[in-house]
Design brief:
heterodimer; A: mainly alpha; 2 domains; B: alpha+beta; Alpha-Beta Plaits; Calcium-transporting ATPase, cytoplasmic transduction domain A; 31 strands; 50% helix
Chain lengths: 80, 805
């Protein structure tokens, strides 16, 4: 057995693990683990309706952005 | 009559008092109009699946509160709480009151999502804090708050910058460090297993090298990123010329790390990278547990602080503005509305009205104030609009002084940790000396420098204080969480130790042994009368006596709402009103005589008369009742060998009566607040460790002086602030349970400390003799830590006998 195989095996597995670690650290940093009860409780209320709800919120956000953009356009005064 | 649950809030009441309603086949029951309103609102919005999600959880009845909504739209409020995003959206942090279960969170989120203009609404399931983002062009904040109120909850803003942000930041930092440490040590472990296998069966050096380098790469971030807190701690210790546990951890881990690099490069000897990672991981987890127990205290504090107003209405040339409390200066005129809490001390300059000072004095009777009287922060304006001149700024006002005292105590280190720190200080010094001696001894007698260095380092590594570091935080964390489950909140882990050592309990009478509010003990009707009238009359007032009678009447039966007219409240005397052609008068004897009715009864209790058309129809005697289970609790506490003393501001007679009823022999009556504190001082001089339980501001000085202060959850905010332990359910039995839990926890801490010292007593001589290799070090460390964790978990097996009161 050559050393290279061991190096590659350890290297790849550690790298894979490190990717997972990086994901977790990112999760901590963006506050995804701040609410520990949500993991358990929120899962019970996760259904089609909630999905629709979330989609609705997205639409709302988009609609607002659009409205804002329109307004900016309206306010834009071309130089004469 | 059968008990039925309310369709909305699930609280069960007698069927006869419920509001009933037919809906198709089934009958709906509601305990109040509020619940009924919410039910129909949810049904019409198509949100009635809430009730399936709710299951059997009991809610508090929905109270339809209104008023003070306009304050949410004022400029001062906006500056204080609302964060403006770059794209013009507004953001606010709210604490939502009345959330009992996850279904409530779901409902609130759902309703907010349905509200037009709300862009984002997330509610934390753990602490019921919400973040709402909305478009100010589409909706106003007052409308959002109104929406939350309409479904039976209440929301008030809080400033996360105060406590939370700091606590969350430390917590996140620890999360990240622990993640890296756990990842590093777990991976080093499986590489180390290959190492150990090779150790027994023989392995070529070239493979060893690969494993060594891999371990080195993994151990480096663990030592320098996760272990950074220890280097920092050791540095501060060095600056203050003390040896602490951080010194030992840092020096042990660092020397093992450097030696391992040396062993790796020279290809001689064994590497200790796995021990390095393990030391850091274990001790870091211990430190994190400490941070965790502090975090809970912060959450509790936020909800206490959140209910005190952070801005006041300042009147300037007949213009009103909301000014944040910090910006109020002496001489400003402040306007108070009914129900508002005073946050700045001052003198009344316009108007008159009664104030609830129960949080300050413990007296449940409101105090009547007029122009020229002083108002203290912490009291609540009950019934009228009043303007007063600020005589102090916010930071020197009574309430604030004590709140800042509390913030200080949260950052203070628990006392028991200080003890463990002290032990580990000595311990660290001794271990470092022994390591040095071992090194010189081996070098001098053996003559082999490398061998001597290995043995010296192995002493430090094996003596690693993993178990020592985990001993206290692990036990106290389990103790605190058990107490919290029983509605006893310890604000700091260290209080468990102090409480366990205490041998004297001082109890306040009003609000602690007794309920602190008058309740009816007997009724003497002179004549038949319509109880609905009396019920309607007492419902119009917030006075404790009225409330007591209302509660009493509610236990008697059901009442229909009768509209009253010309309601007039006379301060400190009574209420009068007109219904159709009947004149209703309710109040004390003096009020009756004023209206030309003769009454000359005297009683040691409070008397309340009710008259119809100038004829007294009934008389009530009200008195403060003793809390349920007080007698049993006092007996149980005495059985623990604790001296129980009663301190009260009341006169001897009523103090004696209460003391006899609960079985306390030692009474000190007629004490002023500072005399109570002097009593505590005297107990200290006698060498006692004093636990004091009280609820009002009149107890605050004594509470602050005692070693452990216990406050009742419904007591004055200030009393809760200075206290170390809060009893949420207010049961005297909880004081006994708090004693039991703290004693049990303290025993576990002592066992843990004893065990880890014993472990070192065995392991260190072995290391000095040179019998320790990396395998033995790793095994013994994990084992000792596991023993400590297991021993701490045993606290959970505590049994509480449920006594029938």
């Amino acid at each position: 057995m050559s050393e290279n195989i061991i190096i590659v095996m350890i290297g790849i597995s550690t790298l894979l693990g490190a990717t997972g670690l990086a994901a977790l650290l990112w999760g901590v940093k963006t506050g995804q683990f701040d609410d520990k009860s949500k993991f358990i409780d929120a899962a019970r209320f996760d259904g089609e309706e909630e999905l629709r709800d979330a989609a609705m919120m997205e639409e709302k956000k988009k609609a607002r952005q659009k409205k804002r953009a329109d307004k900016d356009k309206k306010n834009y005064m071309p130089a004469d | 009559m059968p008990q039925v649950p309310c369709t909305h809030c699930n609280l069960t009441f007698d069927e006869s008092v419920m509001i009933t309603e037919k809906k198709g086949e089934e009958t709906l029951y509601f305990c109040c109009k509020g619940c009924q309103g919410v039910y129909h609102l949810l049904e019409s919005e198509g949100l009635d699946s809430f009730y399936d999600k709710l299951g059997d959880t009991k809610l508090q009845p929905a109270v339809q509160s209104s008023g003070d909504l306009e304050k949410f739209d004022l400029e001062g409020f906006k500056n204080k709480y609302i964060k403006e995003h770059e794209d013009g959206l507004y953001e606010i942090n709210l604490i939502i009151e009345g959330i009992h279960c996850s279904a409530c969170v779901w409902l609130n989120e759902k309703v907010l999502h349905k509200t037009p203009g709300v862009i984002e609404a997330t509610i934390n399931y753990t602490n019921n804090k919400a973040k709402v983002v909305w478009d100010p062009e589409e909706i106003r904040l007052s409308k959002i708050i109104e929406t939350i109120r309409s479904i039976g909850y209440n929301a008030y803003p809080y400033d996360p910058a105060l406590q939370e942000e700091r606590a969350v930041k430390t917590r996140k930092e620890y999360y990240s460090r622990i993640l890296v440490a756990v990842f590093g040590s777990m991976n080093i472990m499986w590489i180390a297993i290959a190492h150990y296998a090779g150790y027994f069966s023989g392995m070529e050096q070239r493979f060893k090298d690969i494993l060594n380098v891999a371990e080195f790469i993994l151990a480096t971030p663990v030592l320098f990123y996760s272990g950074w807190v220890f280097f920092r701690g050791a540095y501060y210790g060095y600056k203050n010329k003390i040896v602490n546990m951080d010194t030992l951890v840092a020096s042990g881990a660092l020397s093992a790390y450097i030696y391992s690099i040396y062993a790796m490069v020279t290809q001689r000897g064994e590497v200790y990278f796995d021990s390095v990672a393990m030391i850091i991981t274990f001790v870091l987890v211990g430190k994190y547990l400490e941070v965790l127990s502090k975090k809970q205290a912060v959450d509790t504090l936020d909800s206490i602080m959140g209910s005190t107003p952070t801005e006041v209405t300042v009147v300037n040339n007949s213009e009103k503005a909301l000014v944040s409390v910090e910006n109020v200066q002496q001489g400003d005129i402040i306007e108070l509305k009914p129900g508002e809490k005073v946050v700045i001390d001052g003198i009344v300059s316009y108007g008159e009205g009664s104030f609830d000072e129960s949080s300050l004095t413990g007296e449940s009777e409101p105090v009547y104030k007029t122009i020229g009287d002083t108002i203290l922060s912490g009291s609540i304006c009950l019934d009228s609009v009043i303007r007063y001149e600020a005589t102090k700024d916010a930071s020197s006002s009574l309430l604030h002084a004590i709140v800042s005292l509390l913030e200080e105590s949260i950052t203070k280190k628990p006392r028991i940790e200080r003890l463990a720190d002290q032990i580990s200080g000595y311990f660290s010094t001794v271990i470092l000396l022994i390591a040095l001696l071992t090194f010189t001894g081996w070098w001098y007698f053996g003559g082999n420098f490398e061998q001597a260095l290995i043995t010296g380092i192995s002493v430090i590594v094996i003596a690693c204080p993993c178990a020592l570091g985990l001993a206290t935080p692990m036990a106290t964390l389990v103790g605190i969480s058990i107490a919290a489950k029983r509605n006893i909140l310890f604000k700091e882990a260290g209080f468990l130790e102090t409480m366990a050592k205490s041998d004297l309990l001082a109890l306040d009478k009003t609000g602690t042994i007794t309920e602190g509010r008058p309740s009816v003990i007997s009724e003497y009707p002179y004549d038949d009368y319509d109880k609905n009238l009396l019920y309607a009359l007492v419902s119009t007032s917030n006075h404790p006596v009225s409330k007591g009678i209302k509660v009493y009447l509610e236990t008697e039966g059901e009442y229909t709402d009768i509209p009253l007219e010309q309601i007039k409240t006379v301060q400190a005397k009574g209420i009068e009103a007109v219904c159709d052609d009947q004149k209703l008068i309710g109040g004390n004897a003096a009020f009756m005589r004023e209206h030309g009715m003769a009454c000359d009864e005297t009683s040691e209790h409070t008397l309340f008369y009710f008259a119809l058309n100038g004829q007294i129809v009934t008389r009530f005697e009200l008195s403060d009742t003793i809390r349920e289970g007080a007698k049993e609790a006092v007996a149980a506490i005495k059985a623990l060998g604790i001296r129980v003393v009663m301190l009260t501001g009341d006169h001897e007679e009523s103090a004696k009566r209460v003391a006899d009823a609960v079985g306390i022999e030692e009474i000190h009556a007629r004490l002023l607040p500072q005399e109570k504190a002097e009593m505590i001082d005297r107990f200290h001089e006698e060498g006692h460790i004093v636990v004091m339980a009280g609820d009002g501001i009149n107890d605050t000085i004594a509470l602050a002086k005692s070693d452990i202060a216990i406050a009742m959850g419904q007591g004055a905010d200030v009393a809760i602030s200075v206290s170390d332990v809060v009893l949420m359910d207010e049961k005297p039995q909880s004081i006994y349970e708090a004693y039991r839990i703290s004693r049990r926890t303290y025993r576990a801490v002592k066992e843990n400390l004893g065990f880890s010292l014993l472990y070192n007593l065995v392991a260190v001589p072995l290391a000095m003799a040179g019998f320790v290799n990396p395998l033995v070090a790793a095994l013994s460390m994990s084992l000792s830590s596991l023993v400590v964790v297991g021993n701490s978990m045993r606290i959970k097996m505590m049994k509480f006998v449920v006594r029938s009161a």
